[in-house]
Amino acid sequence: DLQFGKLSMSSIFSQQKGESKVIQLEKGAEKQDFEVSALRYEANKHFFLSRFFRDQYDAALQNLPVVNSGVVITKIEVWVTNKSSRFDRARNIVAFTGLAENNVGDPSNPMFDAMVDRYAGIRDINQVSGILSQIGTGFNSGKDYEKLENARLLDPSEYILNEKLGYISLNAALNADEVLAVAYEYTVRGEIHTVGELTSNAPAAPSTLVVKMLRSTTQSPKMPTWDLMMKNVYNIGSYNLSAEDFVLDILYQNDKA
After folding, report:
1. Which letter, b or e, does each residue of 2-26 get, where b requires 16 or more Cβ atoms within 10 Å of its Cβ?
2. Are residues 213 and 225 in contact, defined by beta-carbon separation less than 8 angstroms?
3. pLDDT tens across 90-140, in order?
4. pTM of the complete model beyond 0.70
5. Do residues 51 and 228 lie in contact, with contact meaning Cβ atoms separated by under 8 Å?
6. How many CA within 13 A on the CB side of residue 21?
7. For 176, what's the count of Cα atoms within 13 Å in the CB-facing half-sphere?
8. Reported confidence tier of residue 16, pLDDT bands at 50, 70, 90
9. Residue 173: which of 137, 215, 139 has the closest Cα?
């Protein structure tokens, strides 16, 4: 602050510290070295739709660029916990862990049939917990099922579906308290099968939809859904990459050797 007679002056000085970055170019292309730890995979973003797709993943990729898969997913709806206050496409859902975990192509789905026929009372979201707790040894919330009021249906632009390998990649990672569930339709050997209820062929709102759970609010390696979360996708911190002339070397160090 300065003052000259009746003239007052206030001045602000700022300093900006920058950082230098060296980009190495080789034959007109950018060359960058980076290290990614095996533990730094993108968690809570990439999910197999069932254990079948997880078990068949390596075999399906043995003859790249050809994907050896006789399964094609033709429709899918992805549901998450609604934290955006968007209710235009919201529905009550109950998601089951073991839904359609039999072999792909086997049309039998005893759990789904029982829920929509014998235990149809779960169409009322307020009765779900009471009804499921009385079945056999009981269903455990967070492990065997999750119920969501006003779950949000994701827009197709919010995820990427690999229709042959059977997994989805979300644009944004889920928080610890968020649930992820799906319903989808697929073809195998020319036959069409459905897992869970798509809104196009399900009872109208406010009836609860029966869908398949991919992630619950309880995350633990002991959970049956733990293996559905993919742990082989990594962010290398680059963008605008082109597949043309792209080279990626993977080095493995075995400390026990």
Report:
1. eeeeeeeeeeeeeeeeeeeeeeeee
2. yes
3. 999 999 988 876 666 555 677 788 888 888 889 999 999 898 888 866 788
4. yes
5. yes
6. 7
7. 2
8. low
9. 215
Q: H/E element holding 116?
A: helix 110-117
Q: How many residues does the chain have?
A: 257
- Structure tokens given for 247: 């080279």
Cα dihedral across residues 81, 87, 93, 99: positive or negative: negative
Bridge partners of 184?
A: 76, 195
**Beta bridge mates, 169:** 46, 160
Q: Which residue has the tokens 């033709």?
A: 74
Residue whose token pair is 């293996």: 227
The answer to whether 204 and 217 are in contact (CB under 8 A) is no
The tens digit of pLDDT for each residue in 186-220 reads 998 888 988 999 999 888 888 999 999 999 998 88
Q: CA-CA distance, 119 to 114, in Å (whole number)? A: 6
In the numeric block, the tokens 């911190």 are attached to 237
Supply 24's token pair: 């190495």
Joined tokens for residue 228: 């559905």
- Distance in angstroms (rounded) separating the CA atoms of residues 215 and 80: 9
Q: How many CB atoms lie within 10 A of CB 211?
A: 28
Question: Is 172 buried (19+), middle (13-18) or exposed (0-12) by CB count in 10 A?
Answer: exposed
